[in-house]
Amino acid sequence: MKILAFESSCDETAAAVVEDGRRVLSDVIASQADWHALYGGVVPEMASRKHVEAIAALTEQALQEASCTREDIDAVAVTYAPGLIGAVLVGLSFAKSVAFAWDKPLIPVHHVRGHIAANYLAFPELEPPFLALAISGGNTLLVDVADYTHMTILGATRDDAAGECFDKAARVLGLPYPGGKPLDDLAQQSAGGVYTLPKSHVDGFELDMSFSGLKTAVVNLAHHAEQTGETLDRAALAQDFAQAVSDELVPRTIRAAELSGRTVIAAAGGVAANSVIRADLELACRRAGYRLYLPPLRLCGDNGAMIGAQGYYEFLAGRTAGMELNAYATRDISL
Ligand code: KG4
Fold first, then answer.
1. Any idea where the domains of the chain sit in the sequence?
2. Which of 8, 106, 174, 214 has the highest CB neighbour count under 10 A?
3. Does this model's pTM top 0.85?
4. Which residues contact 49 (CB under 8 A, 6 or more apart)?
């Protein structure tokens, strides 16, 4: 079964053709990051407008690269939540038009389910059940993936997402948007151990986390140095910050596996590209005897193929939608 898939929840317009949820026939992305970098972060209205400009040509390209015509496509999958609402609406409206005009089933896909499904594209042997650590610019979740479409949130951030925190810390360190990757590169120039940063604790919810205190601590350190003329060891702060984020995520991931009885763990989302988090997850899983799946870097960030992968399993579960399907800025992954 060939699915034409769309993703437009933030600043990447993406279209892909995926066969049977596992084989990528094409995967094209138009990133707007350079535009948003001019403003230091995503400008929502600009994101919507750039999606409008890019999506039709990108669709042509995805079909061409997959050597497909509309007759070869069996269904249309699209991110319908969560994300910047205007941005999601562009992809959703376009996907609905395609499904309507071509008379194909329409499959709504939760964006974070898509991130998790990126693992199916990289690892043919991976099947649920497993535990997923989904860490991106807008979401930070520990998810029990009981099967392809039954998911339960075991833990989550109470405030900022891990990626948001990376982007903000990078900004005060003078790095360009999106800051996660540049901060990761800078961190590799230092062994760290210079700055003491706060740890979060949510009373009674050991798998929940918070990143706002950590974000504020980095902002305060940078501002304090600026005001007093002290030299900030930027590389050390980047390293200590990345380690602090990892220390929030990795022990809770292992604890979530212990509590849920899962022995397979899959990471997902843009922040899963972070080298400190990847190394810490590898070490922790080896020690605990868990099997770890870390998607290749190109499948960590937003892409259309991951929506096509999850779309296939949503379709098999009968989860298609009619033309009344709406977009949602926030939406529980378990729904
Ligand atoms: O998954 P993604 O592409 O978009 C969302 O669904 O949100 O994630 C984007 C986030 C951004 O915050 C970006 O700075 C972060 O992933 N990111 C990283 C790295 N590469 C991307 N964060 C830390 N280390 C990285 N190497």
1. 2-115+300-316, 128-297
2. 8
3. yes
4. none
